[in-house]
Specification:
With 367 residues, this protein is an alpha/beta fold. It has a single domain, classed as TIM Barrel (Alpha-Beta Barrel), CATH 3.20.20. 46% of the residues lie in helices and 13% in strands. It has 14 helices and nine strands. The strands form two sheets. It has a seven-stranded parallel beta sheet. Helix 9 links the parallel strand 5 (201-205) and strand 6 (244-248). Helix 6 crosses helix 7 and helix 6 packs across helix 8 (170-195). The radius of gyration is 21 Å and the shape is globular. The relative contact order is 0.15. The model has no long low-confidence stretch (mean pLDDT 95).
């Protein structure tokens, strides 16, 4: 295997559980805006350009939901009616949920009265046009969003109320998930019909785990949520059989992975190795034949708190475990947070790319 592979070819080999010149790498959620500013400033002082380094390192090009077709942006830009408020944490800020549009809704009539988004209002040609403009030679793997069904419902009610409703008003949850899935399925179908050939990864996202265990029981997942996941993955497999069906979930979700596989998912992300039961060797041994893994490089403990030598050594070890026989895309488990040493970000890259590959990255990003 030579080092002349494109990023897309490298990712495709990983998805087929084949080895290549190195494990592909994705920044995933990427650094937070505040951390991007730090990386940009500190690396510039070393004669390096962060955007160039980022683009050279990342094997995956990604976009969010397509824009509305026409008309002005609504006053509240969230399509579900959720409102957020900016909260400071000292060195930066984040958006916290401030209004849950389905909170307190207890009847099917009230649920139906909610102004649900309509897929036809969105420009489904956007992913294909974006890929044609920014990835014309298909050099990078291309990822588009495909739906976060239960997570969206949790955002609309608040997590506590969503879980209570699963137990006490399951018919209400099913009705809400039907509305949400109707939207995501229609939009996914339109996007794939407009240009499936350009797409390699379909991102579904539903956080199902806490730091110590599942948020809901496997039985509840299988009874209420899995049918909606299976509905979406079946449409994805029909229209883009070549594309990985990627499920993002934080937390300790080892026990539910068989159900996610049964739901039709082929790639698991974020692989939060700090959570209970999420040992890399255990994950690879149990599900390495059925799933490609993406993530695993901890943004909770390793990147912010270890020294650079430890970050590099543990990244090398992680890659060795997950990439044995292929089936791995190296990545941080989530957003790289403000306070993470810049040298640790570089050490992560050195651990994934090796000395020669890392030197080439730096050379490409010299200002």
């Amino acid at each position: 295997m030579t080092a002349t592979l494109t990023s897309r070819e490298r990712v495709q080999l990983a998805l087929r559980h084949e080895t290549s010149d190195r494990a592909p790498f994705a920044l995933g959620f990427g650094p937070t805006p505040e951390m991007i500013a730090v990386l940009t400033t500190e690396l510039a002082a070393r004669g390096l350009d962060w955007p160039t380094l980022r683009d050279a390192a990342d094997d995956v090009l990604r976009i969010g939901l397509p824009p509305l077709r026409t008309g002005p942006a609504p006053e509240n830009p969230d399509i579900w009616g959720i409102r957020r408020a900016t909260k400071s944490y000292g060195g930066g800020s984040y958006d916290e949920f401030a209004h849950f549009p389905l909170a307190g809704v207890e009847t099917l009539a009230a649920l139906r009265a909610h102004p649900w988004p309509v897929a036809a209002d969105f420009d489904a040609t956007y992913p294909a046009a974006y890929a044609a403009r920014y990835n014309p030679d298909h050099a990078k793997a291309f990822r588009i969003p495909a739906g976060n069904v239960f997570e969206t419902y949790c955002w609309m009610t608040g997590l506590e109320e969503a879980i209570i409703n699963l137990l006490e008003r399951p018919e209400l949850v099913v009705a809400a998930l039907t509305h949400i899935t109707d939207f995501f399925e229609a939009l996914l179908v339109d996007m794939l019909r407009a240009g499936a050939d350009a797409i390699d990864l379909l991102l579904f996202a539903d956080d199902l785990g806490s730091q110590s265990g599942l948020l809901i029981s496997r039985a509840l997942y299988r009874e209420i949520i899995q049918p909606f996941h299976a509905r979406l993955t079946a449409r994805a497999a029909e229209l883009a059989p070549h594309a990985a069906r990627m499920i993002h979930s934080d937390g300790a979700v080892f026990d539910i992975l068989p159900d996610l596989i049964d739901a039709g998912f082929t790639l698991f992300e974020a692989v939060q190795t700090d959570a209970a039961g999420m040992d890399p060797a255990r994950l690879k041994a149990a599900y390495g034949d059925a799933l490609t893994f993406q993530g695993g490089i901890s943004v909770q403990a390793l990147l912010p708190y270890a020294d650079a030598a430890t970050v590099e050594a543990e990244t090398v070890q992680l890659v060795a475990i997950f990439n044995a026989g292929g089936g791995y895309i190296a990545a941080p488990t989530h957003s790289v947070q403000l306070g993470t040493p810049v040298d640790n970000v570089l050490a992560m890259l050195r651990g994934v790319f090796g000395e020669a590959g890392y030197a080439a990255l730096l050379q490409a990003s010299r200002r």
